[in-house]
Design goal:
The protein is an alpha/beta fold and 429 residues long. Helix content is 23%, strand content 21%. The protein folds into two domains: 200 residues, FAD/NAD(P)-binding domain, CATH 3.50.50.60; 216 residues, no CATH class.
Length: 429
Amino acid sequence: METDPLGPAPDNHARKVDTLIVGGGQAGLATSYFLSRAGVGHYVLERRAALGGAWQDRWDAFVMNTPNFSLDLPGMPYAGAEPGAFMARDDVVDYFRDYAQRIEAPVRTDMDVTRISTSDGGFSVETSGGSWRARNVVLATGAYQEPKIPALAAGLPKSVLQLHTHDYRNPEQLPDGAVLIVGTGQSGGQIAEDLLAAGREVHLAVATCPEAPRRYRGHDIIYWILRAGIHGPEYGLNTLTVGQLPSPAARFACNPLLSGTDGGHTIHLRELGRQGIRLHGHLEAADDGELTFTDDLAERLAAVEAGFGQRMGRALDAYIAAAGIDAPEHQPAPADDWLPVSPPRVNLAAENITSVLWATGYKLDLSFVDIPVLDAWSYPRHVRGVTEQPGLYVVGLPWLTGHYSSILGGVGVDAEYVAGCVARCVAGR
């Protein structure tokens, strides 16, 4: 098939192309880079009006929690003067737009894909901008698709403003009064700090995302995660590969609690409590202005603090030892047994809580894929990004092949493999 460089085909005929990439974020652009090098005709369809991916949905004060050195997209490794610094939201968006221009990615924006189905040995792809026919399709939509809000949100009074972190931008967006943040993943922890710095009273419902040290054994923790995830199998270490996960649901576990603000730092929940944030257990019910939290804050905080050492820390230590790397021993943080008073029931009016931020993550939404390749979690069934449906591929999802699969510095590994499979398919047709 020939690519159509002239835009929409006349008379409602489908445009034809060898390969379509659905999604113009880091995974889609990385795949485009390798397809271009292989000479495979393709387009990248991006539903947004401009490139920049889901980073455009972050709040105003957002800063990457992965250092600049990990901005290692294929063909454009970070070459700036601050490899250990952390890039702000707008700079990240500009970085991706610059990357797309440098690699001359054939991107079509304002192309929301609404249905993908099989057709005559290939695929029919319906979009907001018309129809396409492709021999191959690469799903590169990422994991930040549909904000996840628990059903109990319906039990909150209408007078309370509710926002998912997807829609939060700055403290001025919220009404006067206290704020309840539900969830302590990376977004919840960083926004809690953002609001605290703005002088807001903050309540924080604690999840089980593990705290992690910003620096570990002489390097930023992301350095070791990428090294161990990508190169660990060379030493027989597969702890950070998808095959070692305890269950398919673990693919969606939250990332370690870290921040890139103020030069990068560890977020310690007890310290946030000492600074004035009101810590609570898991939010389990909301009824007529009364919130009920689990009465297990002590156990929850202990689990949060122990989680890194139980899995990730051991995996990184094993890699360092197996690779024979001379790295200083980790000095753990001093034991901290401070514990706030945390009543299991809270009255919204009594505490003047006027807004709730749901830092509860996202769920996959691949409902536009009208092909039976999704499992019970809406995750494509695949082997190294090659799905059960010939010609249909996936890149960029969490734990596609390993912990690094959705990280900027690691997404190129899967993208290169998948692009190679596509190129071989095109060459052999």
